[in-house]
Amino acid sequence: MTIVKPILDGEKVPKGKLRDLFRVPPLVPLELTRSTLLIGARGVGKTTLLRYIAASSSATAIYLSLLDELGSVAKDAAAASYGDGIPPSLKNALCAKSECLLTLGLLRESLKYGMTAGANVRRELPPAISAPRRGAISPKWISQQVVTIRNAPIASINVDDCRGLLQRCAARLGEDLTEQGKELHVLLDRADMVQPFLAMPALNLLDQAGAYYALVATRPAPYADPDWGRNQPIAPIDHYNTTYIGIAPRTQEWRAFVRDAVSAQYAQVIASRRMPPALLDAIITYSRDSIRVALELTYATLKAPDKLWDDRLNRALDEAKSDLVRRGGAALNPWVRRFQDTVKAWRAKALSTAKKLTVQTPVVIELTSGSHQAELNHDLPPPSPVDRFIAAALSVGVASPPDGEGWYPGSRLERIEISPILVWASTDRPTALVASEPRVVQFSASKIAGPGRRKRRTGKMFVGYRFKAEESREFFASFKAAIQKHPLLGGVKVREGKLPAGTEWAHEIRERLRRSSLLAVGDVTGLRGDILFELGLARGLRRPIAPVLAKRRMLEDMPGWLRAINHGYYERPSDLTELVSSVLEHLNYRQRYQPRRFPDPVPTLVGAIGVFPWNRHLLDRVSTLARREGLDYRAVDGVSDSSFEEAMDLAAKAAFLVLPSDGTQGVDAFSHFAAGIVTAWPRIGDLSGGLRRHVVLHVQDPQVAVPDSIKHCQSVITCTQELNEGIESFTAFLTHYKDWVGSGR
Questions:
Q1: Average pLDDT of the chain?
Q2: Do 513 and 494 contact (CB within 8 A), yes or no?
Q3: Residue 444 sits in the same domain as residue 313
Q4: Which of the listed ranges 194-203, 546-555, 632-641, 700-709 does the model predict with the highest average pLDDT?
């Protein structure tokens, strides 16, 4: 039976399968009798739960994702957060935008239920949202207002007009439905995926004053009220209910729930492969309060090639631990220098209190000297560094509140339980299910989460962009500014490919890329030959490369070999933050992300990549002359997904290389990339007296554009349409080759 990948993201569960895959978590009510804050770990099933409630509720249930609605504001906040942080006045202005966009999203979805958003609603709209003069609110009008708000200068929005806007409009819509004998339920998802202060309008919606019920889903996050909305912050219990999914992950009820959720996707495969029940029990224990982790471990265990089930699970746990260490290192970067060393220290200290750890041994970290009591503080003071450290650890799944305890806005924990996957080591028996008491180990809060834990990092990186495209220039300017303002990356120098007139282009670009050991970023939108040539240069120098695109949909139009490389984007507001995080990831784990080393160039190898009827005559002549002189001739017919690595190796090894250029993006893109690989090492042996390598870019038609960067490299690359000129280039190479052999070098 074929093992398919599990559906991990609640938003990707098809509507037709929602009822089949959804399972009701223990202690979670499906009927809303009061506004509720739904809290849970990464992958616990919050999004699936909200979608199920929206689909099955008898009330008018409006579902909104904060990540989708507030993406543009999150981008503005991310750009402003570097350096000394965001001033309170700017936070309030961004919250005003957030309030407006969430209100417009609420109105948009209400139209789908036939609601008309009458005069009562229109009267609540602030001047920033210009209500239609005539007629009802329409989807087209809402789309226009969303664009206006997203692009509006911060100073143009009156903050006071927007305070409480979302609550007032929800209340008016709820009143209209109440008159019809119906209820309004507002379901807000992914509140943790935007900056915490941007989610405050959503949290304020939990107030019970309105004629609606709100359900807000979030991971733990360091929420604080930036003087927004109410005179007194709303608080759990007083103003809304709280539900923490997975608060007791070691109870039989929770384990049965996770087992049922896994079986919903893998019951037949588990039965056909005869997975031992004890193994599934171990997987459930390791996953703790995350269905996502349980599904990932089950899939990886079933797919593993090992014969013994314990070995399969060990392999799956090793992959899961590596991924969690990577995510934890990125999230806890401001406090922890090397997260993998911190994990080892946690395990070592836990082992010092016990001779042996099993899968059921909870390891609890107690932060001393500066930690806070786990009690509710209704005043919601600004979170301390310790609070932010704990919230970040909880958010990415590195840690959880101890068994039986929860987290709520305003609560401050002094103890966190480390993920069982991080505690696991390959020397452990993965299915040892001997219950044991928690091992509590103490660490100083000031050492783990003290200020100034990380120093600014240094390094150089290269960015190639389209000089004549405004969107690409804006991307470069924004990206460079974000790097320079980042508290940890401010020491990283960003170099570009634009050079002043009179500069020896090939030498200077090669030197810039050679010195940019961190990363080479290139905007490959439109497959510009200059950018691909620069990325090829970087790849030839064994530098990590990161192609970026203006739109995600453009990835479908990229050649297969280029799609195999992970792309970045600058389409959504959060994309810039992700790119900056990638730079930090490459800087922290340089060795991990360094590309594989190409084979060394071979003086006797003549190569050709791309064989077509129009260039066959030249290739036949070159192969005949090469074999006559005792040289090895190799050709790769074309570049496909399967032959990409072979073609790159040939470009790296060949002393003389023929590349085609026929004006099609698929062919030209790789030829420009391969020309860069050769240009990275223009000589074999000594840089001054070594054998000079050469590339012939055979152009099919004079109307085919040749990138300026390639024209600047005449010492290495000959661009020609003529057969005779291509033969002359190879003859000149043979003469140089013979002289080089005769000199004994």
A1: 83
A2: no
A3: yes
A4: 546-555
CA distance 476 to 468: 12
**Paired tokens of 563:** 């799609």
Quick one: 611 and 570 in the same domain? no
- One domain for residues 614 and 723: yes
Residues 6+ apart with CB under 8 A from 68: none
CA 527 – CA 546 distance, rounded (Å): 14
Angle between helix axes 277-287 and 252-273 (nearest 10 degrees) is 130
**Could you read off the pLDDT of 696-726 as tens digits, one per residue?**
999 988 888 888 888 888 888 999 888 899 9
8 A C-beta contact, residue 328 and residue 254: no
Question: Which pTM value belongs to this model?
Answer: 0.63
User: Which token pair is 133?
Assistant: 């003069």
User: pLDDT, tens digit, for every residue of 121-149?
Assistant: 777 888 878 766 666 778 888 898 888 88
Q: Residue 143 corresponds to which tokens in the numbers above?
A: 């789309």
363-368 β-sheet, strand order: 399-400, 415-418, 363-368, 439-444
Q: Where are the alpha helices (DSSP H) in 406-528?
A: 420-423, 445-449, 470-485, 505-515
Tell me how far apart the alpha carbons of residues 522 and 476 are, in angstroms, rounded to a whole number. 10
Residue 414 belongs to some domain of the structure: yes
pLDDT at 379: 47
Query: Which tokens is 594 given?
Result: 């360094």
Q: Is 484 exposed, middle or buried (0-12, 13-18, 19+ CB in 10 A)?
A: middle
Q: Which residue has the tokens 């390791």?
A: 286
**78 lies in the same domain as 225:** yes
- For 195, 456, 525, the CA distances from 86, given in Å and listed in that order, are 11, 20, 33
Same domain, 445 and 466: no
Locate tokens 């193994």: which residue? 279
Q: How far apart are CA 62 and CA 56, in angstroms?
A: 12
Task: Show the tokens assigned to 227.
Answer: 């003087």
CATH code, domain carrying 541: 3.40.50.450
434 shares its domain with 470: no
Supply 64's token pair.
């909104």
Tokens for 724, please give them: 């005779």
In a domain, 281, yes or no: no
Length in residues, the chain: 745
Kindly give the pairing relationship between strand 691-692 and strand 683-684.
antiparallel
Q: Show which of 244, 269, 288 is a domain's final residue.
A: 244
- C-alpha distances (whole Å) from 288 to each of 246, 284, 313, 414 are 8, 6, 16, 20
DSSP-derived secondary structure letter, 28: -
Number of helices (H), then strands (E), belonging to the chain: the values are 29, 21
DSSP-derived 3-state class of residue 536:
helix
The CB density around residue 730, as the number of other CB atoms within 10 Å, is 20
Looking up residue 675, the CATH number of its domain turns out to be 3.40.50.2300
The total of structural domains in the chain comes to: 4
- Residue 61 forms beta bridges with which residues? 185
How far apart, in whole angstroms, are the C-alpha atoms of residue 413 and residue 394? 11
Domain of residue 100: give its range.
27-244
End-to-end, the C-alpha distance of the chain in Å comes to: 60
